Amino acid sequence: MGRLFKCTQDINLVSTNKIHTAALVSISPNTSQQAITANTSCVSFQLIIGGIKPDSQSPGFKNVLLTPNFIEKLQHYESAHDGPFGKIISAWKKVNGNIEYNITIPADSTATILFPEVGSKNVYQYGKIIYSKNIFKVPSGTYQFIIK
Questions:
Q1: Which CATH number do you get for residue 34?
Q2: What number of other Cβ atoms are within 10 A of residue 46's Cβ?
Q3: Is the dihedral of CA 48, 26, 12, 42 positive or negative?
Q4: Strands 86-95 vs 128-129: parallel, antiparallel or unpaired
Q5: Nearest CA-CA partner of 105 in 126, 122, 133, 85
Q6: Which residue of 28, 54, 106, 128 pairs with 85 in a disulfide if CB–CB is 3.0 to 4.6 A?
Q7: What pLDDT, in 10s, does the model give residues 73-97?
Q8: Residue 104's domain spans which residues?
């Protein structure tokens, strides 16, 4: 296992073989190992892959914008941010060709999830399709979405 890269939060990027930590992902298709290049701040890492962003209409993470990026060559990613209302978590992993997307939104906050284009796949919550124009709103709590 690699060590955690510490800035305002711990960020783990998990490839198929081992944990890497850095600020921006650069995957080289010419090697068997996935390379990570640190060339920007950890906040960019959180924004680009984890998709945790403040909502300019609700400052202070009162409403969190979640725009995850399900990167083809990665099997798992988890990002967390300690906001003023508590810890915000955006995590996904690939399981049997599907993507499990787990989020935690602290008390007194809400989230707007902007799912990326998933081709012909649908987004499910509790076994029901919820994908509607790729935007979904949730109150505080812990949620799991399945993209299959």
A1: 2.60.420.10
A2: 22
A3: negative
A4: unpaired
A5: 85
A6: 106
A7: 889 888 888 899 999 999 999 999 9
A8: 5-147
**Structurally, how many domains does the chain consist of?**
1
How far is Cα 44 from Cα 41, in angstroms, rounded to an integer? 5
Report the amino acid identity of residue 112: T
Give the angle subtended at the CA of 62 by the CAs of 60 and 63, to the nearest 5°.
115
* Residue 31: φ, ψ to 5°: -125, 160
138: its two tokens: 């949730």
Q: Which two tokens stand for residue 118?
A: 């998933």
Using a 10 angstrom Cβ sphere, with 0-12 exposed, 13-18 middle and 19 or more buried, the burial of residue 96 is: exposed
- Per-residue model confidence as pLDDT tens digits over 39-73: 344 455 556 677 899 999 998 899 999 999 888 88
